[in-house]
Write a structure and sequence with these properties.
The complex is a heterodimer of chains A (112) and B (136). Chain A is built from 5 helices and no strands. By secondary structure, chain A is mainly α. In chain A, 73% of the residues lie in helices and 0% in strands. Chain A is elongated, with a radius of gyration of 18 Å. With 136 residues, chain B is α/β, with parallel strands linked by helices. Chain B has 7 helices and 5 strands. In chain B, strands 3-2-1-4-5 form a 5-stranded parallel β-sheet, with helices on both faces. The radius of gyration of chain B is 14 Å and the shape is globular. Classes of the chains: A mainly alpha (112), B alpha/beta (136). The interface between A and B is medium-sized, with 32 and 29 residues.
Chain lengths: 112, 136
């Protein structure tokens, strides 16, 4: 494990938020819970990838996974999704997997 | 709400970065996070019998990393055990697979995705509830 001080600090914050999430069971806190859980999941993944860089999926792989979860025909077109990921990130480096799927769908629609 | 249910293989894959399917399952978890960031509710669930089968002990120090992914337990309580016991399939589904079926049947989500290495068995244990089984 290649931990840095920043990693250790982030880990401590993550564990604390996780503990708070486990004892927060008020329905009114649902929205906050959604935000905090998302933050925890993102941070957990980022930490995981920092410790295991080879485990990090590419943006195209994440987009393909989402396409499969959605039942989208794009799930069977990995080359289209990969091309879309390249095209989108060339213009928008911070694009996410949904941006890739939107781009891929647009490309398919234009070529139909 | 989308619920993503993990089977034994999906958990095993996520447990070890050296597992050949690790990146695939990580991509699914990251995809769920992407949707959540956009405000769409997605929860990730593991039936506790699946945790038993895959050896995921949350109290073990080695599970700390996996525990941080906010994967929620579906407990095999009395009601779930009754449903799981009643599931009859043409194949001899494991206890863990039948618990997946029970978890799916008790879910209030309008969209259920099962990450599994055995899509055919998953469809069988989840029937008549329609689920989208994604092969990992």
């Amino acid at each position: 494990m290649r931990g840095t001080i920043r990693d250790v600090n982030e880990l401590a914050v993550l564990d604390e938020i996780n503990r708070l999430l486990d004892v927060t069971d008020d329905a009114a806190a649902g929205a906050l819970r959604q935000v905090l859980e998302t933050l925890v999941m993102e941070s957990a993944l980022r930490l995981h990838y920092s410790q295991h860089p080879e485990a990090k999926p590419t943006l195209a792989e994440v987009a393909l996974a989402l396409a499969a979860q959605d039942g989208s025909p794009l799930a069977d077109l990995p080359e289209v999704v990969a091309a879309a990921a390249n095209a989108v990130t060339a213009r928008h480096p911070d694009a996410d997997a949904d941006d890739v799927l939107l781009w891929a769908e647009a490309q398919l629609a234009m070529s139909a | 709400m989308r619920t993503v249910v993990l089977d034994n293989e999906a958990v095993q894959a996520m447990t070890s970065p050296r597992h050949p399917k690790h990146r695939v399952v990580a991509a699914h978890l990251e995809g769920a996070t992407t949707r959540r960031r956009r405000g769409r509710p997605v929860e990730i669930v593991v039936p506790t019998a699946v945790r038993v089968e895959s050896g995921w002990d949350r109290s073990h120090p080695g599970s700390a990393a996996l525990n941080r992914f906010r994967v929620h337990d579906h407990a095999l309580d009395r009601a779930a055990a009754d449903v799981a016991a009643a599931i009859r399939t043409s194949t001899s589904a494991s206890v863990a697979d039948r618990h997946i079926g029970a978890a799916v049947r008790s879910s209030t989500s309008d969209e259920i995705v099962v990450l599994s290495s055995d899509p055919r068995d998953m469809v069988a244990v989840c029937a008549p509830v329609e689920v989208r089984v994604v092969a990992v």
